[in-house]
Description:
By secondary structure, this protein is an alpha+beta fold. The chain folds into 2 domains: 3-54 and 134-181; 71-133. It is built from 8 helices and 4 strands, in the order H-E-H-E-H-H-H-H-H-E-H-E. The relative contact order is 0.26.
Amino acid sequence: MKIKHVIFGERSLTKVAGLFMNRSGAEDAAQQVKRTAGLDDAQVNLVGPPDGDAPGSPAFSSKLEPEQAGIWRTLVRAHVASGTAGIAVGVLLYLGFIVAGNPAVMSTPGMSLMAFVFFGGLLGLLVGGLLTVRPDHLLVITSVRRAIRKGRWAVVIHPVTQAQIDRAVNELRGRGYRVVRSL
Length: 183
């Protein structure tokens, strides 16, 4: 199992968006991408000015982040996995200082262990928070938001395999004026 599937609870980890000048171009591209990349209806969303782009707009939010339950799973998994890894790194650093004979650690081994575990766990939890925020999705969401504010349309795709990602990106590049994707 890949490490990203341990951390992330969403089925689709990548978002691909093709931006279009009008609705008809976006609709045509959406249908073609479904056929070419083998996507189902739930994986392809058409987003435009009627959906609104205000933060928290239900139509906009659900089309760009359709896996709300997966986001909660990501929140829990990312924090548990990275917190545990942080604690493990803290313990390993502590053991390294003990083996090296560091006088500060050797004079107060119990307090030193607690400090290494605490700060390792804390840093791990901070990394878990960063992973939960998904900064890689920001480019896609911001680009789509800008486009619909200008009266344009977007096709937002939620592929689950690398083959679907590649086919979707290639198809959209040939049809839209801009294609953006997350990691």
